[in-house]
């Protein structure tokens, strides 16, 4: 616990404590809770579109490595096939059950980002 007995420390901590006490977020703010609040405020679709476009941009960089995969359901079977990333810009994404960007760069960064277009949901995994 910081020493708040000196005047200059008290001057700094009082406004901070006041902001925390009047914050619309609970004191036990976790990254998951923050993400839920932001999605509630801005909507799934905006976040989905921003993240999807960021993946296309990342896969189009000169130092990018990896592939893009789409999953298509045909009856009871789920089929996976490679797709050129830029082809997704003009595609009807709802035709795909899932889209997987298996990306990274020549510097060794690796990541995966999976999208569920019909539900407007996505999940990112960094393999740093």
Describe this structure in words.
By secondary structure, the chain is α+β, with helices and mostly antiparallel strands. The protein has a domain at 38-126. The chain has helices spanning 7-21, 31-42, 44-59; strands at residues 64-74, 77-82, 98-105, 110-116, 121-126. A hairpin with a 4-residue loop joins strand 4 and strand 5. The longest helix has 16 residues, at 44-59.
Helix content percent band: 25-40%
The number of distinct helices, counting runs of at least 4 residues, comes to 3
Lateral strand order in the biggest sheet: 2-1-3-4-5
Rg measurement, Å: 21 Å
Q: What is the strand content?
A: 25-35%
- What is the tally of beta strands? 5
From the N-terminal CA to the C-terminal CA, the straight-line distance is: 34 Å
Strand/helix succession: HHHEEEEE
Mean pLDDT: 81
Residue runs with pLDDT of under 50 for 5 or more positions:
6-13, 15-20
Structural class from helices and strands?
Answer: alpha+beta
Major sheet attributes = 5 strands, antiparallel
The general outline is: globular
